[in-house]
Structures are given as C-alpha cells and as structure tokens.
Amino acid sequence: MEINQLKTLEDVKNLKPGKRKFFSAQHQEILSGATTDIYFVRTRQALMGLGLEKTYVAAEIFPRKSGIFCGVEEVLNLLENQNVEVWALPEGSKFDEKEIVMRIVGPYDNFGIYETAILGILASSSGWATAAFEVKQAAGDKPVYCFGARHVHPAVAPVMERSAIIGGADGASCILGAKLAGMEPVGTVPHAFFLILGDTVKGAEAYDRLMPDEAPRLILVDTFKDEAEEALRVAEALKDRLYGIRIDTPSERGGVTPDLVREIRYRLDIAGFTYVKIFVSGGLNPEKISVLKDAGADAFGVGSYISGAQPIDMTMDIKEVEGKPLAKRGRLPGITNNPRLKRLL
Q1: Eight-class DSSP state of 198
Q2: Rounded to an integer, what distance in angstroms lies between the CA atom of residue 291 and that of residue 264?
Q3: Looking at domain 128-307, which of 3.20.20.70, 3.30.565.10, 3.40.1010.10, 3.40.190.10 is its CATH number?
Q4: Mind listing the pLDDT tens digit for each residue in 212-228?
Q5: What are phi and psi of 226, to 5 degrees?
Q6: Distances (CA, A) of 91 to 88, 241, 340
C-alpha cells in the first residue's frame, strides 16, 4: 500500500481524520507522519525550501535511565523502506542510563518525520518491558503472567503485553498481545462467572465439565467465602483434576497476605492436596511478590505494575552532519562508540 507522507503545512491542514469509532492512530497514519509533532513537518518544509532535506546525518538515541530495550521491531518496520541504516541493541537487551541504544544513519528527510513515533515506541515499550523484568526477577523461577490489558487503551494493550513478554513475563491474558509474541493467551474465568452461578464449587464443576481437557483447572476461591475453606471445597470436588486455586482478595479485605497464602498451603497439604498450586493476583509489585513467594505462592498475575509503568524517556540527537562531527551544546559531537550495537537494517 502506498503511503503519502505529510511534507508541508498545507498537507497537515488538509488532513481530515474523519468520523471514527476509536481515536487510536491507524497504521497508515503512523507511517504517513500524522502522529508526529508539528515542528518536524515545519522542519521538513523549510529544509525542502533550502534544498537541504537530503542532508546526510547520523542520529543517536539514548535513555534517561537503565532498563530493558523493547520496541525495536516496530521501529524497524517503520523505517524499512526509508533507505537508512539502523544500528541498535537487540530487542530484550539490558541497557544503562545514557547508553546509546540506537543509531540511525541516512538522509535526514528519510527519517526525521518519524522522530516522535520512534521515541514514543521505544519509551513506552521499554518501560513496560522493564517493569515486567522487575517482577520476574522478584518471582525467580515462579511464573509471572501479565494481566494489565484492562488498565490501558485497547489500541495499545497488545503492545504493552507483548512488551511484558519481551521483558520476561511468562505469558499474557490479552489475546492479541500473546499472539503477537508467539504465545497462546492465558487465563480462566473472572469473578463474574462464579457470581452468576452463585457458588464457587458449582462454578468449578461447570468449568471442569465444559472446558477442553488441556485447559488448566485453576479456580478463583475468594468470591463468596473464606479463601481457605473454598480452596478445600474445590479440591474435594475436583480431586486430581484441580491444577490450582487463584486468590485475588480485594484491598477492601486486606488483599492477599503472606499469612493467607501460608494458611491455604498448610490446609491443602494436610488434606492431601499437596499438588494444588496457589496462584496470586491483585495489586502485585516486586516487593509483594517476593514475600508471597516465600509464603508459598506458586505463580503470579500482575496488572497495573506493568501496564502503569512510566515510559523510559528517550532522546534523539544528531551527532554527525555530512560526515562531520556536530552536536548541540551539552552533547559530545561525533558517533559514540558502542560495540553492543548491531546493524539491524
């Protein structure tokens, strides 16, 4: 599909988004430059007027703090037909504060219009990936799943959950996010299912009867009664078909605590259900995961800690113009040596 980029202020004036159901940018709008800051169109028009739009430059991108690099694949897709070189850290790499994570070399007009999009892609994706890395570090060998899609706009939910998997999450609940990462989505049923059926065991038995055999029998046990009591009721009903129970106790009742996890683990064990896993979700962060893991939790569902992660600010600077070292005040002119960069485009 041919993409007509915005080249002048007149193009911007004539841009008519039209009536739409959702306000997120469409792929062709990102490629056209419609999501850029207006000053890049002004720059393009002025350079074209001077005959300097094809000035050959080298631009470098660095982060304001350390983290996990993510968003590279989207940037490469954005620039794939622009006749530029892209050098970058591979997706999923750790980076340090102010380390050069990407270098773009070529005619300025071939990529300048995309600076806003490039930095936004890398900043948000790296922020989500870094948060996922942090919770996975806390969980150690216990699985962590991203449940954050409900906390962000649906247009970016798949990007967020894919980024979480790049950062180390073992899976994601958002269907498209998991599929884009080459995985199948994970998750069972929400509290609504049990509320409609009116009883946890009744819901567990229906789920067991109606779901395919390969679906893990992982049952919520905090909907109606004491979590430990419900865990035992479900275990007695499903026996060895029960894979695990999930606790998602709301903050109004104190949330999931280490003592609660320990009690459930103890009561399941003395009743002979040592094989039943304990899955925890609800307001988790690295600190909570660490203590809940020690208390006996086997897996974690993390939402807002990942989805609400701050983007990691990225900055792009021109460092060479027509092969000559040049930079704004405060930056060192010339290409910065970073042997970790690989040519990706």
Answers
A1: T
A2: 15
A3: 3.20.20.70
A4: 999 999 999 999 999 99
A5: -55, 135
A6: 9, 39, 12
283 φ, ψ (degrees, to nearest 5): 65, 30
- Percentage helix, strand, coil, to 5, in the chain? 45, 15, 40
Query: How much is the pLDDT for 310?
Result: 96
| Contact yes or no for 218/186 (Cβ under 8 A) | no
Q: β-strands 56-63, 102-107: how paired? A: antiparallel
> Both ends of the chain: CA-CA distance in Å?
21
pLDDT in tens, 159-187: 999 999 999 999 999 999 999 999 999 99
What per-residue confidence (pLDDT) applies to 302? 97
Which run of H or of E encompasses 94? Answer: strand 94-95
Q: What are the residue boundaries of the structural domains of the chain, listed by start?
A: 1-52, 128-307
Compute the distance between CA of residue 29 and CA of residue 260 in angstroms, rounded to an integer.
50
Q: How many Å apart are CA 255 and CA 134, to the nearest integer?
A: 21
Q: Low-confidence residues of the chain, pLDDT below 50?
A: none
Element (H, E) at 146: strand 144-146
92 neighbors 166 (Cβ within 8 angstroms): yes
Model-wide pTM > 0.85: yes
CA distance 171 to 174: 9
Q: DSSP for 269-335?
A: HHTT-TT-EEEEESS--HHHHHHHHHHT--EEEE-HHHHTPPP--EEEEEEEETTEE---TTS--SP
Q: Would you state the structure tokens that stand for residue 317, as one six-digit string?
A: 């600077």
CA angle centred on 118, ends 116 and 123, rounded to 5°: 95
Neighbours of 185 (CB within 10 A): 17
Secondary structure letter of residue 62 according to DSSP: E
